TrEMBL record:
<protein>
    <submittedName>
        <fullName>Uncharacterized protein</fullName>
    </submittedName>
</protein>
<feature type="region of interest" description="Disordered">
    <location>
        <begin position="1"/>
        <end position="34"/>
    </location>
</feature>
<keyword id="KW-0175">Coiled coil</keyword>
<feature type="coiled-coil region">
    <location>
        <begin position="179"/>
        <end position="213"/>
    </location>
</feature>
<feature type="compositionally biased region" description="Low complexity">
    <location>
        <begin position="9"/>
        <end position="29"/>
    </location>
</feature>
Length: 330
């Protein structure tokens, strides 16, 4: 005969062997070694490599982090609650649970996602939620002492989880204080950042003004660059002319050096000729003195000659007179 209970029906005529097949219950899914795992420090595994620490089924498709900082399958947690009172391997969904209607089941599922809960919720509310989640386990099942034992075991697990939750809540409160302190520091830094932003805006305006001045100077530099290039072209042309003149000057210098050698030779020759001229001038001076002396002698002789000439003329006149007288005498 089948008797009804809050989680479904149970066939009292089922054999003990069939009851043994129903031992896959919440206690088997929450053995004692699972409690020690709840006290371990949780470290987020690499993304995409999450694993349910309860059933070890591999990668979590719908990870749910409980207040004890462990992550489980979302469906695994709900199934553990719903299947706590099943009979003959009968799996019940939310619509078959008499304690909840469909809306309450949705609330149950959404509230059990601890990862989405805000840390601002007070500890008593969180504990009450956990108590409410497992309230369905407190059922009266006539003739089912084994399931009641399992429910008591689950209740012990829940109590230990609540203790862990309280410890984690204390840590959360401490971290909340740290967060508030950090928020104060962040606000201070935000004020500093706003002040620096104002200074940056001022510097940006100054930089824009300087940029305008630089643009003006760049235009002037471009003009000067063009002028310098033109001057450089003229300088290059003048450099070519200078090079030509330098070559011509070097050629003229060579000619001048040749003429200087010739002049030096002529100077030496002239000095030699000057020495000869000086010697000749001495000779000429001596000859001039001798000539002057001879001229004086000549002048004296000329006077004597003139006297003799006059005397001769007189004698000639007398001779002519005598010759005429002689002729007359004849």
């Amino acid at each position: 005969m089948a008797t009804s209970h809050p989680f479904g029906t149970e066939d009292n005529s089922s054999s003990s062997s069939s009851r043994e097949t129903t031992t896959t219950n919440s206690l088997s899914r929450f053995p004692e070694n699972r409690l020690s795992e709840c006290s371990e420090e949780w470290v987020d595994p690499p993304s995409g490599n999450l694993e349910c620490v309860a059933c070890r089924l591999g990668r979590l498709l719908e990870p749910v982090q409980t207040p004890c900082a462990h992550t489980y399958f979302r469906g695994y947690i709900l199934r553990s609650i719903r299947d706590a009172g099943r009979a003959n391997n009968e799996r019940l969904d939310g619509r078959q649970m008499p304690d909840h209607n469909e809306t309450e089941v949705e609330e149950l599922e959404s509230r059990f996602n601890f990862a989405s809960r805000s840390s601002e919720r007070p500890r008593p509310t969180m504990n009450e939620d956990l108590t409410w989640e497992f309230r369905a386990l407190n059922v009266q099942q006539t003739g089912s002492e084994q399931q009641q034992t399992e429910i008591d075991g689950l209740r012990g697990v829940v109590n230990e989880l609540l203790g862990i939750c309280e410890q984690k809540q204390t840590e959360i409160d401490e971290w909340r204080g740290i967060c508030e302190q950090k928020q104060t520091e962040i606000d201070e830094w935000r004020g500093i950042c706003e002040q620096k932003e104002t200074e940056i805006d001022e510097w940006r305006g100054s930089c824009e003004q300087k940029q305008m001045e630089i643009d003006g100077l760049r235009g002037t530099v471009n003009e000067l660059t063009g002028s310098c290039e033109q001057k450089q072209t003229e300088i290059d042309a003048l450099r070519g002319t200078v090079n030509e003149l330098t070559g011509s000057c070097e050629q003229k210098q060579t000619e001048i050096d040749g003429l200087r050698g010739t002049v030096n030779e002529l100077t030496g020759s002239c000095e030699q000729k000057q020495t000869e001229i000086d010697a000749l001038r001495g000779t000429v001076n001596e000859l001039t003195g001798s000539c002057e002396q001879k001229q004086t002698e000549i002048d004296g002789l000329r006077g004597t000659v003139n006297q003799l000439t006059g005397s001769c003329q007189e004698e000639q006149a007398e001779i002519e007179g005598l010759r005429g007288h002689s002729n007359g005498l004849e």
